[in-house]
Amino acid sequence: MRLNEVVFTxxxxxxxxxxxxxRIGGKQHSAPLLTGAQxxxxxxxxxxxxxxxxxxxxxxxLFVGTGTDIAHIPADFRQTLEQAGLGVEVxxxxxxxxxxxxxxxxxxxxxxxxxxxx
Length: 118
Prior knowledge:
By secondary structure, this protein is α/β, with parallel strands linked by helices. It is 22% helix and 31% strand. The N and C termini lie far apart (37 Å). The relative contact order is 0.25.
């Protein structure tokens, strides 16, 4: 079996997560947060579309992690993001982190807006 080391050039992957935090690039961040090629910063949740629309030109797919369980996102939240040209994929936060990491390792233009797990 041959193993290849994955090199992330545009953004840092999610290293881990727990109740109320995410670890990215070896640093622990309080959640919710937004991460991608633009760096990692706090995210205001579903009331904060402004920070997501601001990255629309640099991102093809935005993964939205809804916490421990999958949940519907508000319709106006989705509509605002889609009108800005963002593809939106909604899943629970653990699945969103894993999917983000896989596509990031492929060099895809992705971002992650994620709520904490409990």
